[in-house]
Amino acid sequence: MHLSSTTEVARADRRASGRRASGQFISQGLMHVVLLAMAVLALAPFVWSIFASFKPFKELVSSQNLLPHTWTLNNYREIFTRAHFLDAAQNSIIAAVSVTAVTLLTSSAGPATSVTAPRLRRPLRLLARRAQPIAAGRSRRSR
């Protein structure tokens, strides 16, 4: 009798773990479907804007199709000729590099200036101290 009850308990245990595994499989599958739907929703505007960039203006405002009927590169030609895109891109690159360099210099001002550049020690520390209250003041006001 003891052997049969042990066997029955083991069988019941296996059935319960099988149900748990199938329940986890279903919940994992449902989670993946929801995440996939969210990813499609997040990427849809980017896909639409890429296809819209190849449409002429009249087709862009009148057609509801995703794919253009008439493919054109005129929008890209216009960006480079009329909108001074290269000047704007150059300005953005200069601004990004400058901000990154200043951030790297001021965030490591303490250890870097104490050993390697004694002449820059005072100006960099002053700059770092001046930047901290500005950032702290903005965060306090926004709360």
Structural class: mainly alpha
Taken together, the total number of domains comes to 2
Largest sheet: none
The portion of residues assigned to helices is over 70%
Proportion of β residues?
under 5%
Q: Could you tell me the radius of gyration in angstroms?
A: 31 Å
Give your account of this protein's structure:
The chain is mostly helical. The chain has 2 domains: 1-52; 84-143, no CATH class. Helices cover 82% and strands 0% of the residues. The chain has 6 helices and no strands. The protein has helices spanning 2-52, 57-62, 74-81, 85-107, 109-115, 121-142. Helix 5 runs antiparallel to helix 6. The longest helix has 51 residues, at 2-52. The protein is flat, with a radius of gyration of 31 Å. The N and C termini lie far apart (71 Å).
Give the helices and strands, then pairings.
Elements: H1 2-52, H2 57-62, H3 74-81, H4 85-107, H5 109-115, H6 121-142
Helix pairs in contact: 5-6
